[in-house]
Amino acid sequence: MRFAFAIDPNWRGPADVFLADLPRQAGDGLVFDPVTKEAKLTPPVAKDKPAQVQGEAVFAVKPEFKWLTFKAQGKVQILADGVELKLGPPADGGHFRLPIPPGSRALKIHADGAFLREAGFLTAGPKVARAVLHVPGQDSTKLVPVVYTEAGKQVGAVTLWAQPGEPWVTLFDSSADDGPFFVYPVDRKHNLVRPNWIPEAGLVLETRYLDRYDAKVKSLPGFQELWKQSEFVAGKMTQGEVWRSFLPCQPMHADLSISKMAPRGAPLTMSRYVGHVRLPADDEYRFHLQARPAGFLVVDGQTVIDLGPAEAMALLAGPNNPHKIAAVKLSAGPHRIEVYQYGAYGQFHVSLGWSTNSRKAPHLLGHDISLLEPIAYAVASPKEALQSREAGTPLVNIVWSNQVAAQQCLGQWPAEDMVAWQFASQLSVPTDGVVFRWRFDDGHQAEGASVRHVFCRTGMREVTVEAVEQKSGKVLASRTDKVHVQPRWDWPESHSFHLLVDALKSRAAEYTSVTPIEELLNVHAWACQFRRNDLREALGPAWAKRVDEVIAGTADDRLYHLGIALAEPEERRYAVAEKVLRAAVAQSPPASQQKKLAALALADLLTYIDGKAPDALDLLVQIDGERTEVDLTDGWKFAPLLDLPPHVVRTPLAKLLEKVAWQQHAKDDPKFSGKLPIRLGDKTWTSCWLTKEITLPADRPQRPLVLELGQIMSEGPGGSMASPGMIWLNGEPLGEPWRWRAGRVVAPAKMLRTGANQLVLLLESPAPIEFFPKDRGPVFAVSGPSLDVELPARWERARADILLHLGKIDEARKLLEGIRAKSWPLDEAQRLRLAAQLRSIRRLAGGAGDDPDNAIDQIDALLHDHPLLRLDAEVMVARVEAHLARKEFQRAVVLAGQMLSLKNQGETTRRQFMLAQVQAAALHGQLDNARKFYKNLTDLSPYSPETVRAREIIIRAVKGP
């Protein structure tokens, strides 16, 4: 097969011949500075007017002048031999480039505006073109590009980037003409003779990782040696400028084998920019480099700036420009510029500017002024973009982009990243009446030559397209490709989730049948975070129909969060929520924090929705008697590590531990007793080992083991971060600490043994020792289970609520009195403040929008500080009204009934609770219950205002809206 490309006409580059360097044949007022190459400003006519570029100039046109290029603001008119040339819209940065008609002899420029810069003639097109190929049925990592011009001349070509499931990016020599160029993907094993060509244009950024730190990186020769040794190339791409504040290339998913070669906390990351510039004049060029933690600038093979970690930190903390500046005398013409940066993962910043005597203010390289030799985009020729070797046999191809018309949402747990990509089809044989049908591995189907698809999870995904003859329904060709779906590496912008909601709602029918459970959970998590109740409603039927499938295929922590969300006022899917929370309780480790939180949520549903308060109390009592399966709080040993071994990821644990001498107590910290939480550190350490033996009984069921280690952190010169490193169980790696949310490490059942199991943690420094200030080193901390300090009190308050509901007032009061709280009973001043606060809360409860939610929050805060206010009628009236406003009708009914069971209630308060019961039942559509509650109210006080309101509420409910 072969692909046809042409050069995108919208390329731009620096002028080959500046107008400032040419004699002016005629004209008045428009004059160019030979140093800055800019048009000189005309003094203003009036004092309050700015200086402008005004006037005209005529220049002779030579046959080799093919385009005119300039950057302008204001009115510019171009005439070739008296005929006006039409200016199209400017390219990025306000640059214009227009072709000069062949045979033109003179060019007149008339300008009236704020500036006219970089004006000159281009004598040749771009030297290098960038082509993106989607090669059907081929592994691009095994291919080399072979490129020919239309005349049959072979030109140089190289691979810029090739990865499974990603577009194949190539660079080829485009200096011969503007196309078409024919690109042939050829298996590299054929050893074809190809031109020995190195692209010398544009700006290319590449990032590599090493799984160990090596001090050689502090010198440029050492950096380059380690660069060649690196086995992991994270990314390589063309860029527009030398400026970044985040690591642009990273392994996004562990399901690619190459991603497993370097952990996320790679001890050493190295990045390199290589750019080719064309300077406009002989001058002294001042380069401004900022590279954190450290880096180098090389110009034409000579080191111009060596910026070490200490100096970079000092510049950043100083009062002046955080860049290191060096001046170099350079001649006009082409030059090669290289920027090298190194540091630990997550520590990345590069900025390179330049200035001269005539340009005092520094400019970002590649941003403000066209200095870079252009790399032009190659676009597929529509008539012959893809051709098959088998004449007459249709071949269909899938083309996609994660940059053009793409949207991405970067998620925080429990939401995962979500992206929307555009897909297009290519057919090798032009055929009329063809329909393209698409199938995605999430069950979604679409039709069209081009479709947009929202991927609800990232990773390796499968896409199929069929070219179908419309009249006969015959499948002419089909193609299935693996696509590596990921957020863009080069710009991790997070778009609004709201832009994807309509597309997700349109797939509601798929959610009840074919959509994978993991994707359902992700869509729901996003809908909850962005408060899209319309999307939560669209997902509702799926939960009801597939709840058993959800429970069987979902981890306990996700079940807990799902159950909580389903019971919220926005959904009120209580039956499904109860089933999900029961599963979360059953699957969570014994006596774990998560199991207790899930049990509290389930007990709340049983008490206030299902009317099963005794069951709720039994549940809490049962969990009270549980013990943790594994006690991680004691028995830890440690060993300091002065030098991190090489190839940690790929070295067997036994070999790594050959010379490790375990210690019970830290040498410099006698307080360490081997108990969690652990905090260790020494100014000489680079890393730290921790180990503990875990014993499992022979009769333990075959299930995973959850180890609640809590936060595993390292403190470096940049602050605290999740510790790089690795966790092993019985010599097998479980993964890096950062992968486990809140430190809940899950060990698969197949890795567990009866009896002793060895848990080992390697905690790495977040930065090399050289990056730390003097007399400081990394500190490592393992927090242990992140138990909610309020959990015991919450547990007792929940039991008290259930006892109140069961009418066991004295037992409930005793529990509430035993909870540590603020002073009780309230004095007169506190009572007055409480009364004012309750008036405010009741106003909120009757408000709109978030007001009822805020009312509930304020009441919960009151009950947290003063648990016995649960027995206060005025407080609970406000709480019932807030539940009514949130449309939690069943809760309002049960809570009001619970308060009516208390003795010594005043008649007014009892009438308020009874009215709330009538209102809740009527709004909930339970008219029989509403009438029953109304009768209780009339028996108590037949002519009260509450009775009149209750009658009106029932009448309105009977009549309907």
Description:
With 961 residues, this protein is an alpha+beta fold. Among the domains are: 106 residues; 169 residues, Jelly Rolls (Sandwich), CATH 2.60.120.1560; 146 residues, Jelly Rolls (Sandwich), CATH 2.60.120; 137 residues, Tetratricopeptide repeat domain (Serine Threonine Protein Phosphatase 5, Tetratricopeptide repeat). Helix content is 26%, strand content 30%. The protein has 20 helices and 46 strands. Helix 12 runs antiparallel to helix 13.
In short:
The chain has 961 residues and is of the alpha+beta class.
Residues in helices, as a percent range: 25-40%
Number of DSSP-assigned strands: 46
The radius of gyration is 36 Å
| Percent of residues in β-strands | 25-35%
The main sheet comes to: 9 strands, mixed
Number of helices: 20
CATH topology assignment of the domain at 203-371: Jelly Rolls
Through-space gap between termini: 67 Å
Q: Please give the CATH architecture of the domain at 203-371.
A: Sandwich
Secondary-structure-based class equals alpha+beta
The outline comes out as globular
CATH class descriptor name of the domain at 203-371 = Mainly Beta
Low-confidence stretches: 252-264
* Mean pLDDT metric: 86
